[in-house]
Amino acid sequence: GAFSAGAVQGPQVSQEQFEKVTELIESGKKQGATLLAGGGPVSPDQKGFFVQPTVFADVDKSCDIWNTEIFGPVMSIRKFSSMDEVVDLANDTEYCLAAGVWTRDTNKIQ
What is the arithmetic mean of pLDDT over 29-43? Predict the structure, then answer.
């Protein structure tokens, strides 16, 4: 559970939020994103609204999981091929509370 020693991801705050997060995960699967990890409730027998930490790759800009603040343990990964593209991606969002860029070329990113 959320208060177990070593727990780093607690439950969603409500059943409504749990359902929103799991519906968005399902939409990611249906809209063609590649599910790398997680993808649903922790366990149907688990008390509380626990969702597995979920990672998607190959997420298209048209996907709901790319364009929605999920407020759940879901990460969307998208590759980029130029600095112009990554800047366009970063600026083409309504929210962007959190984002990250990983590159092997630290000179370009600075």
Answer: 93
44 vs 70: CA distance, rounded Å = 21
Q: What is the DSSP letter of 41?
A: B
Q: From residue 90, how far is each of 1, 7, 13, 57, 85 by CA, in Å?
A: 35, 31, 28, 17, 9
Q: Are 75 and 54 in contact (CB under 8 A)?
A: yes
| Closest listed residue to residue 65, CA positions, set 104, 34, 86 | 34
Mean pLDDT of 65-72: 90
Average pLDDT in the 65-85 region?
89
pLDDT (0 to 100) of residue 100 = 74
Torsion angle, CA of 21/72/104/110, rounded to 10 degrees? Answer: 120
CA dihedral for 53, 59, 61, 62, sign (positive or negative): negative
CB count in 10 Å sphere of residue 21:
21
Give how far Cα 93 sits from Cα of 1, 71, 97, Å: 34, 16, 10
